[in-house]
Design goal:
With about 300 residues, the protein is of the alpha/beta class. It has 2 domains: about 10-30 and about 155-295, 3-Layer(aba) Sandwich (Rossmann fold), CATH 3.40.50.1100; about 35-145, Rossmann fold. It is built from 11 helices and 10 strands. It has helices at about 35-50, 65-80, 100-105, 115-120, 125-135, 145-150, 175-185, 200-210, 230-240, 250-265, 285-295; strands at about 10-15, 20-25, 55-60, 80-90, 110-115, 140, 165-170, 190-195, 215-220, 270-275. The strands form 2 sheets. The protein has a 6-stranded mixed sheet, with helices on both faces. Strands 5-4-3-6 form a 4-stranded parallel sheet, sandwiched between helices. The longest helix has 15 residues, at about 35-50. The chain binds pyridoxal-5'-phosphate.
Length: about 300
Amino acid sequence: MKLLEHKIPIVEIPIKSNVKLFIKREDLTHPEISGNKYWKMFFNVKKYLEKEVSERKIITFGGAFSNHIAAAAALGNEFGIETLGIIRGNELENTWQENPTLFSAHQNGMSFRFVTREIYRDKEKMMKELQEEFPDALVVPEGGTNENAVEGIQYMLNDETREFDYLCSAVGTGGTVSGIAKFAASHQKVIGFKAVKDESLEERIKKLSKRDNYTLVDASDGGFGKIIDENVRFINSFYNQFGIVLEPVYTGKMLRKIFEMIDEGYFPENSKILAFHTGGVQGIAGANEMLRKKNRILIKVL
Ligand SMILES: Cc1ncc(COP(=O)(O)O)c(C=O)c1O
């Protein structure tokens, strides 16, 4: 993998407020390995490609709509490496073709193993067993989060991002916000918007970032992947006003929460807030399919 040749823009979101809000468009990092996914995989893959092995394969984990699974498959396709996705939910075995994330991952060459939720829960055990079964493979944890991933996130920060008082990121497995906290300048505060109700995140982020410059805020709307109508309305209105596509699991929830916090006066006057758009727009198709089946309002941004 290589560092980017193109510059990632930071755009201002024009809001009537005594603070300023900007978005760093990491979603433009790569058409399919978008945002934090590229950087979380960066050192993992770079180091793996430097190793001499006879059968290269990347194995990783995710749910039915996982952005990380989509990104890993695209990465495998780009580098000519076989990929194997361990997918949560054995009920998908016969229906994965109808799932846009899994279908496009398959088109990018990924093969799958579907496992029950019970088996999936014990990922440590699965990782160990898979590494034994495929000794030459790179086994990447769920969401790509490990120490290499945290190191890669440094490339989301640069001289331009140093000008901000607050750095905001959505949180799933915690690798991204750990990297932002680790590499933030000493004057900067980091806010992680939790897309998942996971009490162990605080501890994990402390361990990975080795900093205490971050705050975690619940932005889960009651649970991971839960999409409430207010979230869909916000995403649609954000797109209509500012022309930027957000997705419903991470970035939509984060930005809605940031707007709420701005309205509540959380940020001191004249604060400069930078939110990272961490991509994941591929998930909109699957979300809409689910919303359509339930006769709910749809995300209209593409
Ligand atoms: C779009 C998007 N934003 C944020 C995150 C959260 O990243 P992390 O799992 O490193 O906390 C993810 C997961 O990779 C994601 O797909």
